[in-house]
């Protein structure tokens, strides 16, 4: 399994859930922290760098003859209120690129309406349900944005376009695109550090969110390690 976070503080929060000592594996384009049979990667902020880093890790694993069974995108996120309060955990049932497209006089057009690509990746249903049950996480759409929302108007616009959205972050769709290109299932787990809305960096509760991430992964170890994509029922 590969767990991809944006920054090293998030990677360390995930690592704190297991007792094993990690060693570094340096690859072209990515440095893995390997412990207890899984790899952790601080893949960078934003969908492009996250996709490039995860793609490097997936390619290296495939060339070694040991492909990953699962890629998990994990980290902190903004939560849409009141569905995802600060400190809560969100498990994505849909990983959606919210700003990939074009503006038109009639509104935003997703890239799919321009005839290109995709804007959504759906993690395996059964795994989403099991992870949510084990962690107490809320299940919903997690948006991937390249610009952190900073106004009530933008938050309302995103909610209108994505009524099922519980959280926004900046890497999920990039990680999912990389995993999808390798045919590997993907999951996104986010701990809410701040409300989505008017920018107020002083209101971010990063420590609480990182602690929630550690708590979640503490409950997930055996479930994720033993999950077999070939036994999926969905
Ligand atoms: O300053 C720190 O100590 C620190 C520790 C851990 C993480 C950070 C980050 O700034 C991570 C950036 C990361 O967080 C996601 N994020 C969090 N809130 C939002 C949001 O409201 N909208 C979009 N993204 C959000 C995002 O995935 C960033 O990559 C700092």
From TrEMBL:
Keywords: Hydrolase, Menaquinone biosynthesis. Pathway: Quinol/quinone metabolism; menaquinone biosynthesis. Its EC number is 3.2.2.26. The keyword Nucleotidyltransferase does not apply. It catalyses: futalosine + H2O = dehypoxanthine futalosine + hypoxanthine. It is an enzyme of class 3 (hydrolase). Transmembrane segments: none annotated. Gene3D superfamilies: Nucleoside phosphorylase domain (3.40.50.1580). GO terms for cellular component: cytosol. GO terms for molecular function: adenosylhomocysteine nucleosidase activity; methylthioadenosine nucleosidase activity. It holds the Pfam family PNP_UDP_1. One of its GO terms (biological process) is L-methionine salvage from S-adenosylmethionine. Residues 43-198 form the Nucleoside phosphorylase domain. Catalyzes the hydrolysis of futalosine (FL) to dehypoxanthine futalosine (DHFL) and hypoxanthine, a step in the biosynthesis of menaquinone (MK, vitamin K2). Belongs to the PNP/UDP phosphorylase family. Futalosine hydrolase subfamily. This is Futalosine hydrolase. It comes from Streptomyces populi.
């Amino acid at each position: 399994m590969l767990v991809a976070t944006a920054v090293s503080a998030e990677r360390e929060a995930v690592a704190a859930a297991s007792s094993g000592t990690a060693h570094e594996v340096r690859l072209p384009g990515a440095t893995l922290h390997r412990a207890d049979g899984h790899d952790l990667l601080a893949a960078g902020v934003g969908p492009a760098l996250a996709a490039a880093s995860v793609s490097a890790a997936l390619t290296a694993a495939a060339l070694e003859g040991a492909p990953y069974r699962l890629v998990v995108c994990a980290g902190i996120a903004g939560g849409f209120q009141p569905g995802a309060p600060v400190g809560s955990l969100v498990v994505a049932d849909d990983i959606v690129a919210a700003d990939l497209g074009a503006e038109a006089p009639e509104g935003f057009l997703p890239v799919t309406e321009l005839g290109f690509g995709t804007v959504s990746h759906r993690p395996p249903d059964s795994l989403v349900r099991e992870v949510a049950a084990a962690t107490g996480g809320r299940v919903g759409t997690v948006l991937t944005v390249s610009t952190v929302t900073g106004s009530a108007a933008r938050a309302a616009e995103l909610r209108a376009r994505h009524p099922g959205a519980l959280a926004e972050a900046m890497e999920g769709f990039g990680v999912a695109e990389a995993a999808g290109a390798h045919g590997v299932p993907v999951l996104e787990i986010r701990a809410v550090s701040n409300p989505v809305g008017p920018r107020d960096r002083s209101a971010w509760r990063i420590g609480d969110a990182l602690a929630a991430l550690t708590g979640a992964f503490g409950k997930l170890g055996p479930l994720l390690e033993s999950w077999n994509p070939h036994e999926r029922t969905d």
